[in-house]
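User: Fold this; tokens only.

Assistant: Input:
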Amino acid sequence: MNTLNVTLVQASLAWHDAAANRRKFATLLAPLAGKTDLVALPEMFTTGFTMQPESAAEVANGPTVDWMREQARKLGAVIAGSIATRDADRHFNRLICMRPDGTHESYDKRHLFRMAHEHDHYTAGTRRVIVDIKGWKVRPLVCYDLRFPVWSRNALGGRDAYDLLLYVANWPERRRYAWQTLIKARAIENLSYCVAVNCVGKDGNGINYTGDSAAIDYLGQPLTEPSEQEFVTTVTLDRAALQSFRDKFPAHLDADEFQLHL
């Protein structure tokens, strides 16, 4: 497909109440049936950004993954969002990209936010993931990953090349300027669309979130209006326009070569 319809769902999260969050998002998503290709939910959308995975995490392929499978089937769209997940004897901040046919890809957050001691509670991922959605190559990442351009690097011409960089986050108000700046930078430097979805409201630790979810084009220009309120909005991305810009401005051909050691 030449175009991809992407829906950003910016919402407040009920602290450590997965069932309430699933009910809320089901209501928000219902009108989207047949109207979008990809729905992006915030980071840890069933719990909030919790450092209590021992009590709050779900087992791998647990009830929220089942819920995502049902919602993706109803909508006829891919649904993406991260979940506090227990897998064997470890915990992961795991992003799920669920397809309408019930299959899914998963990405475990690579960069764990040490200032909240996330690295003391979760295991870092080591695998890059590219998800194919109707011929579009999508690179899913989580929150703090945004600060690390090497990990987000678009290897145009290689097997890790992508058209859309997707971040799901719980990014607090106190660092909103960094959020607003870096999502634009990641789009510009990677010659890619960038969609970044955040939450709003106050979490169980008293931390305030002001959203600023955004879709950014390959020039760093916003395709959505900033908001501190809950919203559901859909943007249409144009791959022909993206490829035309890459052809006219092939900055990736001058990129520095390096190897990432995991």
